[in-house]
Every structure is written in structure tokens, then in C-alpha cells.
């Protein structure tokens, strides 16, 4: 029996129209499917409605895959695919299976020889890298840095070293309520000439995107206060 | 005087219609501009024509920024921006300023406080990461590995160590004529249980995307023969 295909469906990075920021091919797949896996069913329904899905939302099957999902339950999520049904994997924002639990489903699909098709859409990490000017010949994404000192400062120094040694841009994210503190820590900890890029609300009308030397960021942390930020370091 | 904005314009990853794989917002910006910077003017003209740019191609100003461009010449490329004119930066394929010389222009723009707006579009690196199932909580992109032994095998072992130590997916690319040899080297050099993802012709009808253990890739390098491949390693 032919299996279904697992489509990886990106969604907007914030409150903007999916028709403006997603390619028609991505929208067409999302509108055609009736079975989805998402971090939260509620958010997925809102995304699918905004994408103009033609069916009533209650007719769609949306299974959840998040931090509460046990490894054994992931195999069950493959059942529709094994039965020949296409499934769409969605993230809360941006591209699925990058910094979310969806990667486990993709990995399980490969194990069962189920075709996987990643679709084109917005990624705050990639937009931050492009827009930073720090170069993407080599780069690393680290997720969140430690929240507390002295671990945070130690990690920042490690990243500066890695940026110099490997000539690789070092990327990381911070939650809105800690982003200003992290920018201050970067300005205080890094060598003055190290470049720091800051990308907030990427692809949204409120976008903030700026690259400058560590010393030039001193006293300017208000720029990112209460915003989800992708940071970059380049030496 | 108000400066112009530097837009970073992604283009398709191969011979598919821009209208299908680029969001309307990206296409709208590309069609509105008349001044561009690109690796090769000829390719840029082909992309802009395919995108449905309304002006005759000979009326567009397309400056080149590539491996022959001297650092001093990059400042000259900012002149239209400083004069208040919007400029579009394009890559040969995919997203500009990621693995191409365009990053230097973006960096120079930040130095002059010129606004930078990265637009949404396809990236083979990001699609390979999403589709690999190897997880993107932490990941590194390394560009090309050394072409010759024993340097190549040594680098492969280093990447395996990094994947285990940092629980980070390790990504790298290879040119079509060497991709089969690299897949063989990965299968022979990595521990048998290490996962290797292979992504070729991503977002194109000929897409090939598969993740399996190193031992399962043995003798299967024909799958990627003569194709540009994004590889991933996850432990």
C-alpha cells in the first residue's frame, strides 16, 4: 500500500496575512489537507482559518505533539500516513521541525519510509541571519543561552571565541522579558569591536533589525525590551 | 535626507515558477525596484524576468557583487541607497547574504544606518534542516567539508563528536560531482548508528530527501550522484 506524505507547513511569524507571507504552493497544500499535527490544536485552527482552509475547522483532525507527548505516542501519529493519508505538520510560528518537537515526527516518518516534503515559509532564524550581514558561510544556532550569571557571561565568552576561531556567525534567541538584559550582558561582556546583530518581529510591520559593535550597543537595550529577539555574534 | 532601504530578495532554488515558491510580498518588492545588486547580472535578469518585473530588463541597474569585488568597491554599491533609492540584493539561488558575498553589503548598510529588510523565500539549508527530522534546537552549518583525505575523514569525525557533545545537528553541502563520494565517506567513517540526512533538489519536483543511519547508507551513494546535496548529521 502506498503511504501518505508528511508535509511540513510553515505559518506566519505574527499577526500578518498568510496570503502575503506564504508562497501559493504552501497555502495550496495546507488548504488541501484534512489531517494535521501541531503543537497546539487551537493555534493550528487559527492558522488554518487565516490561510483560507475551505472546510469547517471542526471537520479537521488536529493531533497535538508537544513537550507533553511521550515518545511512544509519536508512532501513533504516523497511523494516518501509513494508511495512505497525507498529513500536515505545523509549528506555533514559523517553520516546523526546526526549534520545536515536530522534528521527532519527521524522524519517525523517515524510519518508516514515509515521504517528507518541507514547504517554503518564514523562519525568524534565517531572516535574522540574512539581515545581520554577519555572513552565513558558517553559522551555528544555539537556542536559548543560560538565563543566570555567571553561566550566561561564560557562554557569551565561549560564543565569541567560537565566532573568531571558526569564523562562524553565532545565533541565539531570547524571550521578550529577558531580551533587554541579554543585550546589556552582550554589550558588557564581549570585546568592544565584536559585531552584535539584533532582529525582532522579523517579517512583521514592527520589525527591528540592526547590527553594530558591542560597544555601540551599550545603553541601548531599550530597543529590544519585551520583544522576542534573534541575536547574532560575528567577529 | 532619508536613505533608501536595502531589500534582501530570495529567488527560486531551481527551474520552478517564482509565483509558486515566493510569497506575494517578496514578488511585489522585486517588481517595484529598479536597482539591484547580484552575484551575476545575467542570472539576476533571468530571475527578474521570470518574476514578472514590468520594466524592460535593460532599464534596470544591476551591479555585481561577487568573489572579484574588492572591499573598497562595496561602499560604492551603497551610493544609490544613500541617495534615497531602494536597492534589492539577490543571490544566484535561494536567500541572499547567507552563503554568498552579499553579506558584506548588508554589513556595510548597517554601518551607514541604512534600513535592511530580509524577505521570505526558499533556503536549501533550512528546508534540509526541517526535512531531516534531526532537530533544530541547536544546529551548525559548515559550508563545504575538505575535498581530500585524510582531512575529510578527520572533519567527519569532528562533526560526529560535535553532534554528540552539543546535541546539535551538523549541516554541510557538497557539489554535484563530489556528493556521492562524500556520502560514501560518511557511511564508512561515522559510527553505524549516527543519523545522516540527505537533501537534494529541495523544493523542486525532483526533490530527494531521506534520513537514515550511517550503516544504512552504505552502498547507496548513487541516490545523490551528480546532485547538489545538503547533508546533515545527528547523533
Describe the structure.
The structure is a homodimer of 235-residue chains. Chain A is α/β, with parallel strands linked by helices and 235 residues long. The first copy, chain A, has 2 domains: 6-118, Tetrapyrrole methylase, N-terminal domain (Cobalt-precorrin-4 Transmethylase, domain 1, 3-Layer(aba) Sandwich); 124-234, Methyltransferase, Cobalt-precorrin-4 Transmethylase, Domain 2 (2-Layer Sandwich), CATH 3.30.950. Helix content of chain A is 37%, strand content 21%. Chain A contains 10 helices and 10 strands. In chain A, the strands form 2 sheets. In chain A, strands 3-2-4-1-5 form a 5-stranded parallel beta sheet, with helices on both faces. Chain A has a 5-stranded mixed beta sheet with strand order 6-7-10-8-9, with helices on both faces. Chain A is elongated and about 60 Å long. The interface between A and B is large, with 58 and 58 residues.
Amino acid at each position: 500500500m502506498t503511504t501518505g506524505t508528511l508535509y511540513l507547513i510553515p505559518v506566519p511569524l505574527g499577526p500578518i496575512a498568510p496570503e502575503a507571507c506564504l508562497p501559493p504552493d504552501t497555502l495550496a497544500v495546507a488548504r488541501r489537507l484534512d489531517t494535521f499535527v501541531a503543537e497546539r490544536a487551537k493555534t493550528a485552527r487559527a492558522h488554518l482559518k487565516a490561510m483560507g482552509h475551505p472546510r469547517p475547522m471542526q471537520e479537521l483532525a488536529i493531533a497535538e505533539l508537544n513537550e507533553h507527548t511521550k515518545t511512544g505516542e509519536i508512532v501513533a501519529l504516523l497511523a494516518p500516513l501509513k494508511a495512505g493519508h497525507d498529513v500536515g505538520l505545523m509549528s506555533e510560528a514559523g517553520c516546523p521541525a526546526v526549534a520545536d518537537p515536530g522534528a521527532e515526527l519527521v524522524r519517525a516518518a523517515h524510519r518508516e519510509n514515509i515521504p517528507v516534503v518541507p514547504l517554503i515559509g518564514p523562519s525568524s532564524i534565517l531572516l535574522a541571519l540574512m539581515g545581520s550581514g554577519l555572513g552565513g558561510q558558517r553559522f551555528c544556532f544555539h537556542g536559548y543561552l543560560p538565563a543566570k550569571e555567571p553561566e550566561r557571561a561564560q557562554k557569551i565568552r565561549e560564543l565569541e571565541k567560537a565566532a573568531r576561531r571558526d569564523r562562524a556567525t553565532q545565533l541565539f534567541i531570547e524571550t521578550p522579558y529577558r531580551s533587554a538584559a541579554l543585550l546589556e550582558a552582550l554589550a558588557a561582556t564581549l570585546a568592544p569591536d565584536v559585531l552584535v546583530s539584533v532582529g525582532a518581529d522579523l517579517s512583521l510591520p514592527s520589525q527591528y533589525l540592526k547590527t553594530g559593535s558591542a560597544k555601540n550597543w551599550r545603553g541601548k537595550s531599550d530597543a529590544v525590551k519585551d520583544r522576542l529577539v534573534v541575536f547574532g555574534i560575528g567577529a
